[in-house]
């Protein structure tokens, strides 16, 4: 029997109130700094850079932008440049040099409507191949951009003629383990999850989880697809084992009723891909561990391989706020250090202890 003290603890290290709505927050790689993205009450966008110093978050830079900023990623930048790519309410994709964030170093009108979600790969030494950014929008399209190529996307996944356009809420890269292979997963407001194979430019798999998909993330971007977590409205999340794809049954999955409200986000621990944190609509965070089954695949009656899902164990949970925690980011450098923001107009730096022991 493990004692409560041997379990990971979630400690709110710093809490900072902001004078704007914050939508996304990200650690700046190889630093004790993080970026907050959002919008001022007057309808303009804001980007703030904070540094964690002596137990406080000190504001070191603030820039105002014409449009509210919804999401950001460092995934397609080099560790030398550490440029952040952002998506805004007007459908623009911008890349900013945080040393001089007044003018974007790259800008493109990516979508007709708000960019809900953004992810990057091929930068920071994570994932082989070109540096690419994927954006998902309310206009129903998912587009992949190479920042070295101006104006037009390298891939555009949009509904067929006559198909209903669904609001794309979340996108994520994965399967980037060599120079050729790469996948994008997208989640939509009607519960659809689609996996696009960028190598073959095809839809590799799709499913529906009955509720709007708020977040998707592979446990690692730079390995042969292993696991995918999808979070949804109504408090559920699903873990798919992505190693074995059955021609008709698809991927095996386990689902968990995690929160009493929407699960806004999922983020895997960079130092251990079997541990992940979910952020909920009631202001709570849950830390989970995935346990693999004894065998990850078995033969079905036709002799084909079918995946076997594992189980999910709750390690710890905490309630931080009465408002939804809408963004969450683990530090890539310090295990257990994490930053999150909520609709209570606050940003919090958290420390999750004992993660190396679970």
Task: Give a structural overview.
- Helices cover 0% and strands 54% of the residues.
- It has 358 residues and is mostly beta strands.
- The chain has a single domain (9-353), classed as Methylamine Dehydrogenase, Chain H (7 Propeller).
- The strands form 8 sheets. It has a 4-stranded antiparallel β-sheet with strand order 1-30-29-28, with no helix packed on it.
- A hairpin with a 4-residue loop joins strand 11 and strand 12 (142-145).
- The two termini are 13 Å apart.
Going by CATH, the architecture would be 7 Propeller
Mean pLDDT across all residues, rounded? 93
Counting DSSP H or I runs of 4 or more residues, the number of helices is 0
Shape: globular
What is the β-strand count? 30
């Amino acid at each position: 029997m493990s004692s409560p003290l041997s379990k990971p603890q979630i400690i709110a290290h710093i809490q900072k109130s902001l004078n704007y709505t914050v939508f996304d927050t990200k650690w700046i790689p190889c630093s004790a700094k993080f970026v907050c993205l959002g919008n001022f009450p007057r309808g303009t966008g804001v980007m703030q850079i904070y540094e964690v110093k002596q137990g406080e978050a000190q504001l070191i830079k603030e820039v105002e932008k014409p449009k509210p900023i919804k999401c950001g990623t460092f995934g397609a930048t080099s560790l030398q440049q550490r440029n952040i790519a952002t998506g805004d309410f007007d459908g623009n994709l911008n890349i900013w040099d945080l040393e001089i964030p007044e003018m974007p170093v790259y800008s493109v009108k990516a979508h007709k409507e708000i960019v809900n979600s953004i992810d990057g790969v091929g930068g920071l030494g994570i994932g082989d191949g070109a540096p690419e950014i994927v954006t998902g929008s309310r206009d129903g399209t998912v587009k992949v951009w190479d920042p070295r190529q101006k104006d037009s996307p390298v891939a555009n996944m949009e509904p067929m003629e006559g198909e209903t356009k669904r609001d794309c809420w979340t996108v994520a890269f994965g399967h980037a383990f060599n120079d050729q292979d790469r996948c994008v997963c997208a989640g939509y407001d009607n519960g659809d999850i689609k996996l696009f194979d960028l190598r073959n430019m095809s839809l590799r798999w799709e499913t529906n989880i009955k509720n709007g998909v708020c977040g998707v993330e592979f446990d690692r971007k730079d390995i042969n697809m292993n696991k995918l977590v999808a979070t949804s409205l109504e408090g559920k999340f699903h873990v798919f084992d992505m190693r074995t794809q059955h021609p008709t049954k698809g991927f095996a999955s386990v689902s968990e009723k995690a929160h009493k409200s929407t699960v806004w986000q999922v983020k895997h621990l960079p130092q251990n891909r079997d541990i992940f944190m979910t952020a909920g609509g009631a202001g709570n965070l849950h830390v989970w561990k995935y346990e693999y089954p004894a065998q990850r695949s078995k033969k079905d009656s036709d002799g084909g391989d079918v995946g076997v899902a594992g189980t999910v164990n709750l390690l710890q949970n905490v309630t931080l706020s009465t408002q939804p925690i809408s963004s969450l980011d683990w530090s890539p450098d310090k295990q257990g250090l994490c930053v999150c923001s909520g609709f209570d107009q606050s940003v919090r730096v958290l420390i999750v202890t004992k993660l190396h022991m679970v």
